[in-house]
């Protein structure tokens, strides 16, 4: 079924927790109609359904697709887009109405979950910018060559664990602050460092590392200078600090000064080789992924997705 090229496809990914899914959608629906936007909405029931519904929108000719969700839903959407022919992908603009457990990529563009009218007003003007994607290329447990794209960041080590805990506790508590505090508390009972071997530019890091963040975007505060349009990846390698330094590092992270910590070693590069990361979890755009087997590589692909940005 062909659709008007001006008609939006809206993919609603409701948050789990105590908030009313229906009331949130009714508010979004009302604001969209106030702006005179013609749209069709589908609702995802599980994370696995996002890519299926995105494929449906693409196959039916929608040129503007809005994800009402967070970083993980956007991740699913861009990975679906990257599977179609470039000529078709170049005709599609992807937008976001933040509605997730974590909305870091939306927040980078100043889209605010609590400012729905402003967000829809910006999206209605359809200002588009081509953005970069990071990509992890790895081998899975079936010895298959795989890859996955990310908009914001890839985490290796403790932060991937924290992001996973934070997602679980946010669903439980429904509060960003409570989920962050509870995640930090649980963190003290988890492994604090991992044996890693990394190759970044001309540097080789072969030692115990607490966490690594590879960001095409702000990386939940760990790659605060990264921007998704310069063809580069920012990398923060964090060595295991003493407890006092760890608390200091958390404070610097919260206040946006993470790179000032003495145990944070920043890099800027086009690719990272991970030759070893024993027992370290890997997270991609805030969601835990299956740990790659053996060596894997992370690179950047420049200006590959059309993203709708503020006016």
Structural notes for this entry:
By secondary structure, the protein is an alpha+beta fold. 30% of the residues lie in helices and 34% in strands. It has 9 helices and 16 strands. The strands form 2 sheets. Strands 1, 2, 3, 4, 5, 6, 8, 9, 13 and 16 form a 10-stranded mixed sheet that branches. A 6-stranded antiparallel sheet has the order 12-11-10-7-14-15, with helices on one face. The longest helix is centred in the middle third of the chain and has 16 residues, at 158-173. It is elongated and about 55 Å long. The model has no long low-confidence stretch (mean pLDDT 86).
Radius of gyration: 19 Å
The H/E string reads: EHEHEHHEHHEEEHHEEEEHEEEEE
Number of helices: 9
Structural classification? alpha+beta
Fraction in beta strands: 25-35%
Give the overall shape. elongated
Give the uncertain stretches in residue-range form: none
Helix content: 25-40%
Could you give the count of β-strands?
16
Report mean pLDDT, rounded to a whole number.
86
Distance between the termini: 32 Å
| Largest β-sheet summary | 10 strands, mixed
Fold blueprint:
Elements: E1 8-12, H1 21-34, E2 39-43, H2 49-59, E3 64-69, H3 71-81, H4 86-89, E4 93-98, H5 104-108, H6 116-124, E5 128-139, E6 145-150, E7 153-157, H7 158-173, H8 176-187, E8 194-200, E9 203-209, E10 211-215, E11 233-238, H9 243-254, E12 264-269, E13 271-277, E14 282-284, E15 287-289, E16 293-308
Parallel strand pairs: 1-2, 1-3, 3-4, 4-16
Antiparallel strand pairs: 5-6, 5-16, 7-10, 7-14, 8-9, 8-13, 10-11, 11-12, 13-16, 14-15
């Amino acid at each position: 079924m062909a659709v008007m090229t001006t008609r939006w496809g809206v993919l609603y990914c409701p948050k789990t927790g105590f908030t009313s899914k229906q009331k949130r959608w009714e508010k979004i629906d009302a604001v969209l109609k106030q702006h005179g936007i013609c749209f069709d909405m589908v609702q995802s029931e599980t994370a696995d359904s996002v890519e299926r519904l995105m494929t449906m929108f693409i196959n039916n000719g929608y040129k503007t697709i809005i994800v009402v969700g967070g970083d993980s839903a956007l991740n699913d959407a861009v990975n679906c887009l990257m599977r179609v022919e470039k000529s078709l992908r170049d005709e599609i603009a992807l937008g976001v109405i933040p509605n997730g457990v974590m909305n870091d990529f939306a927040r980078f563009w100043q889209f605010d979950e609590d400012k729905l009218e402003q967000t829809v007003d910006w999206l209605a003007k359809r200002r588009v910018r081509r953005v970069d994607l990071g990509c992890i290329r790895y081998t899975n447990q079936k010895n298959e060559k795989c890859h996955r794209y990310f908009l914001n960041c890839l985490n290796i080590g403790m932060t991937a664990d924290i992001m996973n805990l934070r997602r679980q506790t946010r669903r439980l508590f429904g509060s960003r602050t409570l989920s962050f505090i509870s995640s930090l508390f649980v963190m003290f009972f988890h492994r604090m460092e991992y044996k890693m071997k990394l190759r970044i530019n001309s540097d080789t890091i072969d030692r115990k590392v607490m966490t690594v963040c590879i960001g095409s975007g702000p990386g939940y505060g760990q790659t605060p200078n990264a921007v998704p349009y310069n063809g580069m990846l920012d990398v923060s390698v964090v060595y295991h600090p003493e407890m006092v330094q760890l608390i200091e590092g958390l404070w610097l992270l919260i206040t946006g000064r993470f790179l000032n910590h003495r145990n944070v070693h920043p890099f800027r590069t086009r690719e990272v080789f991970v030759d070893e990361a024993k027992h370290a979890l890997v997270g991609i755009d805030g969601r835990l992924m299956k740990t790659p087997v053996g060596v894997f590589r992370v690179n950047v692909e420049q200006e590959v997705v059309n993203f709708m940005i503020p006016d």
